[in-house]
Amino acid sequence: MTVDGAQLWTLNQRLLSVVMDACTEELADLGLETKEFFVLAEVAASPYPAEIAAALLLPKASVTVYVRNLVAKGFIRREIDDADLRRHRLVLTTEGAEARDRALAALAAEYDRRLARITPQDRSELQRILQEMLTSPA
């Protein structure tokens, strides 16, 4: 049986969507919309809006709206970048870090419920496969 990349991509996308949908209410209870959560979760790794847009494959204008919302909610703040005083970088607030961590815990719990359907050996193999797929080609 041959499984092509498009089929695997679609299955993976469906799984992620099902997990996100199952956590929508918990995210809302934290004051987050789904895409706001993704932006919030990316701030530590990519502290500039343009970097966030590139990492999440979102239009810069959309990221600007999400950042504005997250600042208004007190989850992130803008700071002048010491390395380049013309730029502002984003920093998680204590409340933002707590909301991110609680949202990640909810997503992990839902994902764990799905993982419980497969054996520990298959989980280890899945982790190995995903790590291999993330490795840059030689």
Protein architecture, described:
- It comes from Streptomyces brasiliensis.
- It holds the Pfam family MarR_2.
- One of its GO terms (molecular function) is DNA-binding transcription factor activity.
- The protein is mainly α.
- It has a single domain (about 5-135), classed as Orthogonal Bundle (Arc Repressor Mutant, subunit A).
- The protein has helices at about 5-30, 35-40, 50-55, 60-70, 95-115, 120-135, and strands at about 75-80, 85-90.
- A two-stranded antiparallel ribbon has the order 1-2.
- Strand 1 (about 75-80) and strand 2 form a beta hairpin.
- The radius of gyration is 17 Å and the shape is globular.
- The model has no long low-confidence stretch (mean pLDDT about 90).
- The number of distinct β-strands equals 2
Termini separation comes to 28 Å
CATH topology: Arc Repressor Mutant, subunit A
Rg for CA atoms:
17 Å
Point out poorly predicted stretches: none
Q: What sort of overall outline do the alpha carbons produce when their principal axes are compared?
A: globular
* SS-based class: mainly alpha
What's the CATH architecture name? Orthogonal Bundle
- Biggest pleated-sheet summary: 2 strands, antiparallel
Q: What is the percentage of strand-forming residues?
A: 5-15%
Strand order of the largest sheet: 1-2
Under the CATH scheme, which class? Mainly Alpha
InterPro entries: HTH_MarR-typ, MarR/SlyA-like, WH-like_DNA-bd_sf, WH_DNA-bd_sf
Protein name: HTH marR-type domain-containing protein
GO biological process, one term: response to stress
Pfam family, one: MarR_2
